[in-house]
Fold this protein.
Amino acid sequence: MFEYDGGVSSGPTILHADLDAFYASVEQLLDPALRGRPIAVGGSARGGVVLAASYEAKAHGVQGGMPGWTAARLCPTLIFVRGHFEQYQRLADQVMDILGDFTPAVQRISIDEAFLDVSGSTHLFGPPAAIGARLRRRVREEVGLPISVGAARTKHLAKVASQVAKPDGLVVVEPGDELRFLDPLPVGLMWGVGPVAERKLANLGIHTIGDLARTPTPALERLLGHAVGAKLNALALNDDPRRVATSPRARSVGAQSALGRRRPTPELVRAVLGHLAERIASRLRAKGRAGRTVTVRVRLAGMRSVTRSATLSAPIATTLTLTEVAERLVWQAIREQDESVVEISLLAISVSNLTTQSVIQLELPLEPEDPHRPGSATGVARLALDSSMDAARGRFGRDAVGYLPATLRRSGGAPDEFRELAERDL
DNA sequence: TCTGGGGTCCTAGGACCC
DNA sequence: TCTGGGGTCCTAGGACCC
């Protein structure tokens, strides 16, 4: 991780730029008939989940992550549109290129938002407020999308400022105004305060960031745990040392698939895990990485989840080995539930404890009699199989091999283009 | 009416080692 | 006979973010 230290400046030189209702705004850009109207990307009035809502829909209470039928009930005129996922990546990259014109210190934190440290750019572009305004204008004129910008001395404050600026606004917090700015804002605007923490804080009468700042740290730690409590108190007092940095390497890779409600038959479990393992392992191989810890998650009907994990003696990146380890863990998890559990609604695999190792190193013999070991005859054969599958995929596209049989696909499942949008670089 | 998919980080208990 | 304290790794669960 490389850090840009803008520490010499005490002005509001950290910018947080955040595209407004990104997926929905792209749909409105692509289809003028949708502009000014309440739309939801993803889901339908009968099922699925809403991935993003336009501001017109948000005005009715529609939010991302909400079941489609709930959204339709809140907003009867809601228009459901299918996503144009390839366009999202292209347009977001175009926006990031524009941000890069203002400073090399850009930390992209998701497809549609980034931090910028502009402390070295003011001699070229003027003060941070001018940079924010210029950046917003360029994104609007060259890409056609609304973007909100917050500028402050720290990342956290810049992020809060961009939330306050939405939609389509710019908020600059001068150093002398920081505490006054934060004081009346709801605690939920802070990074790290979700629904659970918000409810616990409300029970103590803590509603605003000012309330939080006036609460003694030990009380917060008792309520929310050591790490969260201490962090929140520091942030509420605007004591935030984080610098803009390039993204660190990923620490885990995973994939999941919602199934509706299914009885976990051996055939179903094998097919779904094989599909997930293939997605994960091919990503690992493409980057020359491998992982030692395999974690599976089984979500039961009723949304309760159980996880099981195993740490292997050597890192793996082969599809078959990952499938078999995951299969063992999933059946272990299912067996340990009481017998009333007959249906599952999701399977997930994650690989962590990642190492950066070449394929050659993975082939070093360990215990040749164990088929799970990369050095065994079986292990070598599996690597060879994976290599040819990877090659076929490279030539004929990602769906050329290893896709989930149509009979096991659930209508309304997330398209692969959507999955790829969320993937982090390994 | 029934709830996506990609991640990060923290906690707490137990095993194990020195 | 009974026994300390610190560090590291592993596992399961959960909060949170986009």
